[in-house]
Design brief:
Helix content is 79%, strand content 0%. It has 52 residues and is an all-alpha fold. It has a domain of 27 residues.
Length: 52
């Protein structure tokens, strides 16, 4: 069921590839930032818990 893209095959498949790559980068950056924020929050909560 793969459509015949003809002379546009390289362009269309490249666009799909770049889009998937960008989605992976955005997901990775989001996960990386979430872990950093979670670690920073843990430090602040410990400081509050210890009365500093």
């Amino acid at each position: 069921m793969i459509p015949d893209l003809g002379k546009y095959a390289v362009t269309v498949l490249s666009a799909y590839g770049v889009s998937l790559l960008l989605l992976a980068v955005i997901c990775g950056a989001s996960i990386w930032r979430a872990r950093r924020v979670k670690a920073a929050l843990r430090v602040v909560e410990e400081r509050i818990k210890n009365g500093r």
